[in-house]
Amino acid sequence: MNIEFRYSQHYDLVLHALAYLKVNNASNLYSQQYIQKMEQNKQSPKHDMPQHMRQLEEYYNDNFERLAVINFLPYYAYDYENMRNMFMNYQYFSPRDKTCFVDPFVKILDAECTFFFDYWNSLHKSNESIRHIMEEKFKTELQKYSCIFDYYSKTAVVLFSYNTTRNGRGIFDNNSFSALVPFPDDADKFNHSFIQLLHEYTHQFTDPLLKSNIQMKDGSHNLSESLVILADYYLIKVLNDDFIKPYFQWLSTYGVDPSESNLHKLFPVNEGLTTELKKLIDNILLS
Fold first, then answer.
1. How many CA atoms are closer than 13 Å to the CA of 177, on its beta-carbon side?
2. Are the beta carbons of 28 and 53 closer than 8 angstroms?
3. CA torsion 89→169→164→143, rounded to 10°?
4. Alpha-carbon distance 84 to 80, whole Å?
């Protein structure tokens, strides 16, 4: 299977900004700890980043389903200016979106980018030796799941982020399963990042089973999460059962105490979907 590793300072800039924005759903990246760390790194802040991002919170939350695309557009941009143009010209933003959110958000990025890109480049350089180690570890683990990529004829794209505060982002690509996950800058973080990567990949072939437009407000996102969690359990149990314990530890971040006996109760999926999921997993495993 083909595996690509990528790093993107302009994508990380957006995630950096989103760490200052409180979002009322599972996509939330807000982190007071991260904000304090960043403000300490700025020798002479030219603008009040926390205040400017707070001013965008209400509009972003009220219009999340439309504006959430800012979490994904950076993947398709080749540099900051290209990403900036995508934000400014995205056809599905309304005129009010542009006035109330997009224009001020881009101005914030413009004001922050000089500091942030210098900071990011320093991080990228300081992590050079461990990057090679982690990429090899990810390759080794991903090979155990090669049947997924062979079944769908997809490349695996791993976009490492130095600045996402939690979670990951699965990104649609015709030719690959692509996902952004936190870069594990020490060995103890490897399991968490790898399981998050597998989780984001799995969304891309289990979400279609729902046959609906998945949203936060109507509960369909919660169902899609449960479906992925069960799918990954089935895959890990067959392909790499040494990872079952780390997987349950990762699931505990959902605020539950999971085990093999209570997994279906904690993450319920109706009988019809469960049957479809098991059939799909069997087809992948037998391919």
1. 26
2. no
3. -130
4. 6
Provide CB contacts within 8 A for 22, sequence distance 6+.
28, 30, 54, 57
Burial class (CB in 10 A: 0-12, 13-18, 19+), 40: exposed
Q: Quick one: angle between helices 128-143 and 103-126, nearest 10?
A: 100
Residue 113: HSE in the Cβ half-sphere, 13 Å Cα cutoff = 16
Phi and psi (nearest 5°) for 62? -70, -25
Domain boundaries, the chain: 8-126, 129-286
Contact indicator for 244, 237 with CB cutoff of 8 Å: yes
- Angle among Cα 31, 78, 27 to the nearest 5 degrees reads 25
Cβ-based burial of 114 (10 A; exposed 0-12, middle 13-18, buried ≥19): exposed
- Give pLDDT tens digits along the chain (287 positions): 999 999 999 999 999 999 999 999 989 999 999 999 998 888 766 678 999 999 999 999 999 999 999 999 999 999 999 999 999 999 999 999 999 999 999 999 999 999 999 999 999 999 999 999 999 999 999 999 999 999 999 999 999 999 999 889 999 999 999 999 999 998 899 999 999 999 999 999 999 999 877 776 666 888 899 999 999 999 999 999 999 999 999 999 888 999 989 999 999 999 999 999 999 999 999 98
